[in-house]
Write a sequence for this structure.
């Protein structure tokens, strides 16, 4: 089956087409036909597509909304000029898998999108006002473009964390507030954690119950997860993706009293302060330069920029703090796993984060660490009691596989 995987943002649409079925899943033989992105939807949008042979194409088009963008992309892919032999018409796309950020308490696994499921996703908008409306736009656009007969599946970022125990997911606020409004830790990046935990098991030839790792997803958004016995035991993101680690533009943990303090001092509403913590904080806020770790590292090495140094230092310190905390609450782990753009590519950040963890049995192999850029690798020494791995994430692959499994009624444990 050719599965279109969609990740719908506020003005962007990321997509991949992956050919997969149960046999290919079992044989790890899924085929990525192409990946691409539409940016600046709502105006003169740019559409880029990269085929599996590496060939890149780029066009611009006036695309007023997500349905227009999706319609354009599909027609372009199906047209002859892209030369993709597997897709010659819209009918050659057999199903659509959507990344949905928030599934609330309702969704503990991926689901075929029925009207009921869509209603539930709409109910979760209250919990994720910045994210879920975009997913809904993507789902409605796909319905419009493909019609009701093409199955669509929702894969939730929160689902993997449904196993969190109460002591991890409850905040120490009046319990009634949890009962009334479902205020709790949900956790995110779940599809990524599920994928890297699965890869880790395969690499080490372990079963799910033998999977005990602290995983760090360090991308634009950053989080950590304590995965004990193969399931999420604790995680750093909370009711929303704002809590926890320092991120590109998000603050991660702050004293909640700071919100009203900033509001009073700066004459801002609480909503505006929340926006500041989401969009103007993190690496960008501390450095005053950029949210991009690569640029910050360049500023540090080339210009010894003190604010870049500070941003990187605070970023690594917070990550170390979470690793330590998670090792404590899960009673130790067998490995630290790095993923996400920073985790997969930056050996310097990994080295800084792992520094001083000898007490926990971790010793990094400097050469292995330096050589591990964008591919799976062990980066700890052979005699390291606590291992360290780089495992590039592939959320889209998992979304495509779940889409197939949901449609065929096959089990797809989160
Ligand atoms: P997203 O969370 O949006 O999927 P990514 O996982 O692609 O983002 O991560 C983006 C982050 O990864 C950026 O901060 C970028 O600078 C960083 N990054 C990518 N490559 C490198 C690299 N070689 N060294 C350091 N940071 C990198």
């Amino acid at each position: 089956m050719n599965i279109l995987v969609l990740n719908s943002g506020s003005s962007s649409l990321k997509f991949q087409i992956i050919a997969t079925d149960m046999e290919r899943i079992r044989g790890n033989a899924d085929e990525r036909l192409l990946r691409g992105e539409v940016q600046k939807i709502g105006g003169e949008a740019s559409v880029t597509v990269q085929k599996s042979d590496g060939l890149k194409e780029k066009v611009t088009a006036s695309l007023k909304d997500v349905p227009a963008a999706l319609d354009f992309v599909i027609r372009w892919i199906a047209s002859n000029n892209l030369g993709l032999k597997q897709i010659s018409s819209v009918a050659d796309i057999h199903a659509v898998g959507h990344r949905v950020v928030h599934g609330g308490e309702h969704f503990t696994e991926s689901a075929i999108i029925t009207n009921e499921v869509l209603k539930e996703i709409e109910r979760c908008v209250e919990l994720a006002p910045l994210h879920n409306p975009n997913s809904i736009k993507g789902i409605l656009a796909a319905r419009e473009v493909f019609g009701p007969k093409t199955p669509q599946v929702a894969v939730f970022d929160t689902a993997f964390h449904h196993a969190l125990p109460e002591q991890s997911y409850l905040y120490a606020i009046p319990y009634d507030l949890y009962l009334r409004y479902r205020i709790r830790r949900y956790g995110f990046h779940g599809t990524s954690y599920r994928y890297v935990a699965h890869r880790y098991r395969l690499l080490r030839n372990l079963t799910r119950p033998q999977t005990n790792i602290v995983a760090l997803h360090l991308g634009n958004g950053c989080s950590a997860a304590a995965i004990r016995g193969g399931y999420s035991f604790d995680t750093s993101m909370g009711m929303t993706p704002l809590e926890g680690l320092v991120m590109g533009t998000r603050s991660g943990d702050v004293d909640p009293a700071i919100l009203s303090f900033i509001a009073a001092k700066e004459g801002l509403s609480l909503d505006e302060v929340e926006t500041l913590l989401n969009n103007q904080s993190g690496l960008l806020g501390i450095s005053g330069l950029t949210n991009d770790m690569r640029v910050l590292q360049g500023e540090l090495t080339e210009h010894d920029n003190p604010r870049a140094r500070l941003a990187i230092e605070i970023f690594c310190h917070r990550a170390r703090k979470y690793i330590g905390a998670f090792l404590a609450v899960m009673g130790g782990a067998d490995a630290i796993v790095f993923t996400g753009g920073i985790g997969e590519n930056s050996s310097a950040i990994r080295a800084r984060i792992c520094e001083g963890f000898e007490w926990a049995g971790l010793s990094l192999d400097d050469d292995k660490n330096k050589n591990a850029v964008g591919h799976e690798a062990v980066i700890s020494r052979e005699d390291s009691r606590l291992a360290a791995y780089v495992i590039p994430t592939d959320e889209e692959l998992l979304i495509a596989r779940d889409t197939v499994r949901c449609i065929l009624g096959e089990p797809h444990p989160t």
Summary: The CA atoms of residues 361 and 385 lie 5 Å apart. The longest helix spans residues 306-329.
